[in-house]
Amino acid sequence: MPDSRRYALLIDGRLEEGAAEFGIVDPARGAVFAQAPDASRTQLDEAVAAARRAQPGWGGLSDEERRHHLGRFAEGIRQQAAEIANVFTREQGQPFAHATREILGATRLIEAVSRVEVQPELIFEAEGVRRELHYRPLGVVGAITPWNVPITMAAGKIAEGLQAGNTMVLKPSPYTPLGTLMLGEIAAETLPAGVLNILSGGNDLGAWMVEHPGINMITFTGSTATGKRIGAAASTHGLKRIVLELGGNDAAIVLDDVDVATAAPRIFRAAFLNSGQVCMAIKRLYVHESKFDDMRAALVELAIEAKLGDGLEPGVTMGPLQNKMQYERVIELMQDAAAHGAVFETGGEALARDGYFIPPTIATGISDGVRLVDEEQFGPVLPIVRYTDIDDAIARANNSPYGLSGSIWTSDVKRGYALARRLEVGTAWVNKHLEPSVDAPFGGAKESGLGRVMSVVGAKTYMEPQVVDIQA
Ligand code: NAD
């Protein structure tokens, strides 16, 4: 059934039509089901101008007052969670229960992030000198989000950017703009005009934002290739502040003392959640040879239990890949792996039906040097690589341009801790993976990102430090 609902841009507190429209594909069918507004460059100018006008007033509110507004925004989303989840499932593909969890999780994220406080710091005080460190809003933040977890990404950026006293222009991915535009309808009712503006459009719109002289900072989540382009453009357009959350090829290392029955379900979830389309999903699994057969068998059993289908059908636990490009890329990586000797313990090819369905796939018989192990697959295909020497496994995990997160799985937490500290990543876990927390700075080492979000460290990312140095 096509969706006849009208979706609107949010500019200066008003819901507006786009200059044009573009089609949104339901990935469970591979067919367009709705239209999204396509913002023009003039509409971007209007949104930026509105955000600039609103910033002094918003920045002048107390932390408590901003938190209050964001709380109303979160509550508004909570009340419409089911309606948003319905649309969001159709555009993103994930099962309805997961979509609902993402939306409700986003409301809690907004509330938790808005409670983080950045206090001025006293640097020095003596002999008539008082030196303090303050943090000021940056001005207008441009936020650009990807298609895999767009509601979570929008919620984190909105809460962190706005609580810091900035105003914002946010652009969702052209693949999944609808849920975010629905957040805009709620913002129109709950936030002062101009504080948050939401524009959907193509990649060009993102590039215009990065070049725009009225935008002071870009907060971006997406691929490393786009992140690098944004970094280069931001530096030549006003030396914009940037925070980049990019791709990953997270390794999980299973030690010889692991309890397979406990670890396998956690590893499976961290590899296959959202059909593997998560930046910090486990994307390669190194297993000690003594546990290899048991771990493979346990993961295959879990993969067989998964129920694939349209996310709106009851009982479905795994949806399609979100878009055709990603679907074709994952198929290509499976074919390349097969040509290099991969054995597919389960899965291994796309389902012969409409939509972008690939079943959970466990690949063995390959190692580092094959694309499925070396590259970010961003799909439901997990290579399991055998190792004998732990130092070699750590070296292989670290031998990547990426460094988002990684994990060690063991019954000996002390040993796990020591090994986790050797991983060249932004977050190193022991006996867990893909469990980010609002109280911990989140971001990537190496080409997985630049800067951190979340916690006080992340809050400061959205601010400019200012020293105030006084001589009495
Ligand atoms: P993408 O880089 O293709 O697109 C992301 C966003 O950037 C979209 O809104 C797109 O329209 C916009 N964009 C594209 N070209 C642009 C340009 N030149 N200037 C400005 N904006 C531009 O990424 P994607 O395919 O949507 O997302 C998947 C990637 O995101 C994966 O690599 C994944 O690992 C990564 N990701 C990272 C995190 C993290 O927190 N580190 C979280 C989620 C996803």
Description:
Belongs to the aldehyde dehydrogenase family. Residues 20-468 form the Aldehyde dehydrogenase domain. It comes from Rhizorhabdus dicambivorans. This is Aldehyde dehydrogenase. With 472 residues, the chain is α/β, with parallel strands linked by helices. The chain has two domains: 9-246 and 448-471, Aldehyde Dehydrogenase, Chain A, domain 1, CATH 3.40.605.10; 250-437, Aldehyde Dehydrogenase, Chain A, domain 2 (3-Layer(aba) Sandwich). The protein contains 15 helices and 22 strands. The protein has helices at 41-59, 63-79, 81-92, 96-114, 150-163, 178-190, 203-211, 224-236, 260-272, 292-305, 324-339, 371-374, 390-398, 413-420, 455-461; strands spanning 9-11, 14-16, 20-26, 31-38, 121-126, 129-137, 140-144, 167-171, 196-198, 217-221, 241-245, 250-254, 282-288, 343-346, 361-364, 381-387, 402-403, 405-409, 427-430, 445-446, 449-450, 463-471. Strand 10 (217-221), helix 8 and strand 11 form a beta-alpha-beta unit. Helix 2 packs antiparallel against helix 4, helix 2 (63-79) packs across helix 6 (178-190) and helix 9 packs across helix 10. The N and C termini lie far apart (72 Å). It binds nicotinamide-adenine-dinucleotide. Nicotinamide-adenine-dinucleotide (NAD) binds at residues 144-149, 171, 173-174, 203, 206-207, 210, 221-223, 226, 229-230, 245-248, 279, 376, 378, 404, 444, 449.
